[in-house]
Amino acid sequence: MNRIAAGEVVERPASALKELVENAIDAGSTQINIRLEQGGLSLVEVTDNGCGMSRDDIALALERHATSKLPDESIELVTTMGFRGEALPSIASVAKLTIESRIKDQDGWCRIIDHGELIEDSPAAVPPGTRVRVEQLFAKIPARRKFLRTARSEYAACVDVVRRLAMARPDIGFVLEHEKRKPIAVQADETGPDRVAALTNRELRANSVAVDLMREDVRLTGVAGLPTYNRGVADHQFLFVNGRPVKDRLIVGAVRGAYAEMLARDRHPVVALFIDMPPELVDVNVHPAKTEVRFREPAMIRGMIVSGLRRALDEGGFRAVQRPADSALANWQSEPVAPDPQTSIFSTQSRPGQRSTFVTPPNHGATLADDARAFGGFDRPEDLAPLMGRAAEAVEPVPDGVSHPLGIARGQVAKTYIVAEADDGLVIVDQHAAHERLVLERMRKAVEGGSVASQAMLMPEVVELDENACDRLESRSAELSEFGLELERFGPSAILVRSTPAMLGAGDVKGLITDLADELGAYDQALSLKERIDHVASTMACHGSVRAGRVLNIQEMNALLREMEVTPHSGQCNHGRPTWVKLAHGDIEKLFGRK
């Protein structure tokens, strides 16, 4: 019977390790030391300085269904990491288990059980606390042993277990030792963000925002990585409910929704979220290992996560992962360039085939306010339609006389990148990616306010599509009109475009309509476009932004920079890539050997 239960609780060394560490946490420990050999296949040892156990407690803990973690019959109000009492006897039935423990001011005791048989029961000279050793897991059960993976894979699973438990309890110190190395070593009484950064990447501290939201009796805290600080897999999403690491599909879906249109579909955010709520509002007993939970009000929890993350990311403003990749800096090298006798260094005319376009520096007597009015004195973004997608004037311009984090534009490189000089370094901006984000945020705000202005086309444009695509667009024409896009069916396989959103200018209408038709084909027909606003607005923004390869003047560049500084999420494009990077003065000095 114990071996059957072991199939539920002890699937691999990481499963046994999880149960033992959770017991140590429940014992009130402030320091937990873990030692592994061969990834846990030959040894898993957990030592803590908790309350310890007496001789009778040790004997009782090894009995089936015995537990001291339920003070009464209220099984739904459990506040400990575990309570079922099956872990220790189940582990002892499939491995050699040694328990040594001592309560402060009492004698210590040791009990050894080898695959269900009692081997030793004697006094032990041990410090206060408990040490549990699990050796030869599944050694006498070859049918189970052969399903274990390699030592490297089992070790990786053990590290993940310890990392998540250590992240959940920053008040406890953890040390994990494996093959004379210590991959995890964190001190007790750290702050939550410091513990998360220590267990993931130290760079997360500088590339994340704090999450803190209270709603009724539920509190959401944690850290959320900037969209530009992302991963190729979702292995750096850590979710905790009442201090318990969980893997819940509802929470994962909420995180994905919060980062919608800020990340490419194959990239994943780095987050660590902690939900604290009354135990009666969540059921932790839906899975034997308690890795899944069930909320009494799942819709509220999902909405809370989405709004909490969105609010935190909004407060992050235009921040992005600023430091260029070390590999990019390493590839930078100075090389002598032979002078061209046909071109003076004072010439302002570019040679044929030259990729970089340098713009004449602005008049030093001109002010930033003059730059912001460089488009002819338009008062509204909607009036910029004739400019056909040029960088727009900042909706909320930064007042004169204040510092500008993104600096002052000095020129344009490869007709794609704006080079600006800031107080603390050199800023390089991807003009297409940046303007795409600005248009998206402007359109999202206009749609939510119900005031998307449309620009009638001088000559309506006919876009030919297949009949199914035309049917999809025609069925959503009323909703698309709320986005400023006026469409009309024109025969069985064509759509007539009468007007487009004014803020997009006169861009690639055919490409816009084609992409929208494809997007609608991927949507659930039951969802309205308002519910898919990010997808629709993102598709439109991509076609209405300043394209790479377009020459901008200094005033247009500065207007773009000013709007970025007052627009949320402008640090990343709609696909999660950074829109700007900063080369600090120290980095520049290194490149030229000055430092």
Strand order of the largest sheet: 5-4-3-6-2-1-7-8
Low-confidence spans? 3-7, 341-399
Oligomeric organization of the protein chains: single chain
Give the integer mean of the pLDDT values: 79
The general outline is: elongated
Number of helices: 18
Class from secondary-structure proportions: alpha+beta
Terminal-residue CA separation = 69 Å
Strand content: 15-25%
| Radius of gyration, whole Å | 31 Å
Got a strand count?
Answer: 24
Biggest beta sheet summary: 8 strands, mixed
Helix content: 25-40%
Q: Layout of helices and strands, plus pairs?
A:
Blueprint lengths: L1 H8 L3 H14 L4 E7 L5 E6 L6 H7 L25 H8 L1 E7 L5 E7 L2 E8 L4 E7 L6 H4 L5 H18 L4 E6 L2 E6 L5 H8 L8 E8 L2 E8 L4 E2 L5 E5 L2 E3 L2 H10 L9 E2 L1 E6 L5 E2 L10 E2 L2 H18 L10 H5 L37 H5 L35 E6 L3 E6 L2 E6 H19 L4 E11 L2 H9 L1 H5 L4 E4 L4 E8 L7 H14 L10 H12 L9 H12 L14 E5 H7 L4
Parallel strand pairs: 1-7, 12-15
Antiparallel strand pairs: 1-2, 2-6, 3-4, 3-6, 4-5, 7-8, 9-10, 10-15, 11-14, 12-13, 16-17, 18-19, 19-20, 20-24, 21-23, 22-23
Helix pairs in contact: 1-4, 2-6, 6-7, 8-9, 12-16, 12-17, 13-15, 15-16
Account of the protein in words:
This protein is of the alpha+beta class. The chain has 18 helices and 24 strands. The protein has an eight-stranded mixed beta sheet with strand order 5-4-3-6-2-1-7-8, covered by helices on one side. The chain has a five-stranded mixed beta sheet with strand order 9-10-15-12-13, sandwiched between helices. A hairpin with a 2-residue loop joins strand 12 and strand 13. Helix 2 packs parallel to helix 6 (151-168) and helix 15 packs antiparallel against helix 16. The protein is elongated.
